Automatic annotation (TrEMBL):
Residues 273-455 form the Bacterial sugar transferase domain. It is a multi-pass membrane protein. This is Undecaprenyl-phosphate glucose phosphotransferase. Belongs to the bacterial sugar transferase family. Keywords: Membrane, Transferase, Transmembrane, Transmembrane helix.
Length: 463
């Protein structure tokens, strides 16, 4: 969750520039190369601006920008523009329209747009840093409460001096830290002297970072601070209920914290995710259809039983779904007790061992994706028996069902795939699953898909 809102004049400035910059630069580039700026170029320039606006929104360019480094910002901008440019190129090939463009002009344009997008943002950031560092009018801030949340807030503020704020003092009732320094910030006194000091020292802003249980102390403090001219802000102790990644929204003036949520709860994100799933799964199924046929014949010839194994698992919102796999075992466990595959498991057929090791047994799940039961990227679906077992012993386990299960996922490409013979291994898998759910973007999905190609198919833990 953000301490400082990201809705500033610069966010809207960036959006406005991003919308018109591709069109303006394309017109200048065509002029430079003596190429007529005809209707096709005009459509490309206008489309690029709209697409850039959308991809920047989905990749997170416009959010959380205040506490982000220049390198991180540049990386997000590059991602957004590369996705935009890729979409434009694919559309041009799809409509066989590439002959209407100069390859040199379009390539030069793509490079210059990315360079200018990054350069002007860096220029604004450097100008802000210079102005605020050279000026002697930083807003002086005092933080009441030198606990975990107070320390984190002070660190966030003082590490970003370009914002124009500086934490100059802590106040806390803990006698052990009075007159001490925390990260070079002195603990000046107890909470009782804050109001008087504010009148004398003239802090510009006061941040109250006391625990939720100190409601009476907070109320008394607020009453005393009404006799000062300082701006007073309250920072709730988000660590108490693990709300550091919670989102806040406003419902007619009432702040509401979204404690368990995901970017995929937004309708526009769901549409993007579904388009991604349908288009990619169709393409992949067409490409791998010969492989599917060969594997099906091989399974039928080497062991008795069905080619496809259907297992009940939990899908979106914990609803039961049937997940398809190539049969790799002599048994088809699908009841209240399901034993995980282990090294040297006698139930696994010789062909099945190869299929499981290379993840080829998962290929039929692209059909599940087309059906809308699964997604290409998401937490791997577990057998219902395992869900019921782990939901009782691992906190937040069921939060992984806030999104559709996936064929590949953030946990899998980070090595948390295959047998989970200890609770600790499953906890680690859930940790990576929840990170994906909390931080989903279209680019995150693309990144996982690309990494899966190089490191996600074969894994030493898959039996």
């Amino acid at each position: 969750m953000q301490i400082f809102p990201d809705r500033s004049i610069f966010v809207y400035l960036h959006r406005a520039i991003d919308l018109v910059l591709p069109f303006i630069l394309l017109s200048l580039i065509t002029l430079l190369f003596n190429t007529p700026f005809h209707e096709r170029y005009q459509i490309m320039g206008a489309s690029a601006g709209v697409l850039l606006l959308l991809t920047s929104q989905f990749t997170g360019v416009y959010t959380n920008w205040r506490g982000r480094s220049i390198f991180q910002s540049a990386k997000l901008i590059m991602q957004a523009w590369l996705i935009t440019w890729a979409i434009l190129i694919i559309l041009a090939f799809w409509y066989k329209d590439t002959v209407n463009y100069s390859r040199l002009a379009v390539t030069t344009w793509a490079i210059f747009v990315m360079f200018i997008l990054i350069a002007y943002r860096i220029a604004i950031r450097l100008a802000l840093i210079y102005l605020r560092k050279s000026a002697q009018n930083h807003k002086k801030i005092a933080i009441i409460g030198a606990g975990k949340i107070g320390k984190q807030l002070a660190k966030n503020i003082n590490e970003n001096p370009w914002m124009g704020y500086k934490v100059t003092a802590f106040y806390d009732d803990n006698p052990k830290i009075l007159n001490q320094k925390i990260n070079d910030i002195p603990v000046i006194g107890s909470i009782e002297v804050v109001a008087e000091d504010t009148k004398n020292i003239k802090y510009d802003e006061i941040y109250i970072c006391l625990p939720l249980g100190a409601d009476l102390k907070i109320k008394h403090l607020l009453d005393e601070l009404t006799d000062t001219t300082a701006i007073v802000k309250y920072v709730p102790d988000l660590f108490t209920f693990d709300l550091m990644h919670a989102k806040m929204q406003d419902i007619k003036g009432m702040p509401v914290f979204s404690v368990f949520d995901t970017p995929l709860s937004c309708n526009s994100s769901l549409v993007i995710k579904r388009l991604e799933d349908v288009l990619l799964s169709l393409l992949i199924l067409i490409l791998i259809s010969p492989i599917l046929l060969v594997i099906s014949i091989a399974i039928k010839l080497t062991s008795s039983g069905p080619v496809i194994f259907k297992q009940k698992r939990y899908g979106l919102n914990g609803k039961e779904i049937e997940v398809y796999k190539f049969r790799s075992m002599t048994t088809q466990d699908n009841g209240s007790i399901v034993k995980q595959a282990t090294k040297g498991d006698t139930r696994i057929t010789p062909l099945g061992a190869f299929l499981r090791k290379t993840s080829l047994d998962e290929l039929p799940q692209f059909i599940n994706v087309l059906q809308g039961k699964m997604s290409i990227v998401g937490p791997r679906p577990h057998a219902i028996a395992h869900n019921e077992e782990y939901r009782k012993i691992i906190p937040k386990y069921m939060q992984r069902h806030l999104v559709k299960p996936g064929i590949t996922g953030w946990a899998q490409i980070n090595g948390w795939r295959g047998e989970t013979d200890t609770v600790e291994k499953m906890e680690k898998r859930i940790e990576f699953d929840l990170h994906y759910i909390n931080n989903w973007t279209l680019w995150f999905d693309i990144r996982i898909i690309i990494l899966t190609i190089f490191k996600g198919f074969i894994n030493k833990n898959a039996y």
